[in-house]
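Re: the request from the purification team.
They wanted to know what the chain is likely to look like in 3D before they choose a buffer screen. I agreed to run a prediction and write the result into the notebook, where they can find it.
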Amino acid sequence: MYVGLISKTQIMQKFSKEEADGCGKTADIEVFVKVRKDSQIPAFDAVGDFYFQSEEQSKYNDKVAEMLTEYNGMFLDDVMKLEEKDVFSAMGEDIHAKDRFAIPALRAVKKAIINYFKESDQEDRYRKATDKVICHCKHVTKQEIKEAVEKGKDSFIEVMKSTGCGTGCGSCSRQAREIAEGYIRTGLGSF
């Protein structure tokens, strides 16, 4: 399982970079992921193994590693829903403005999973992972709003009920309403 944060001179991984299913990199850290694949239900693909390469150690990155490996590996779709506030919350810490992007491992892991989706020709999952998130509380993307309208939801209230968008903190309601009403008004084509 989790090999841990290691220096670039101490590569102690259980698999080679070439064997990795996905690779993600930020300025501070590089992550290699092996996916435990479910041959029948791709949505059940989970983190099988991974390792970080980093010059610096971080308690936040350690918490990300712990979260990924709990219960025999987190489902990839659940990893994509993780936010930095989830890591802070799991540690029992408050989020401060200065900590806004304090967890490079989380961003790098998400990039590795997106890389896996792309390299394994999982176009729908790749599109969803790279689509713009409108509602962060319920993790609703612009594409999901569009799909709700395509399925016959003809008001913002119906889109809200269908997707959950705007039902959390409410900070996305104005933008979500504009997007939904734009799709409804233009017949989905040119918004």
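For the purification team: The chain has two domains: 5-130, 133-186.
Please add any questions underneath this entry.
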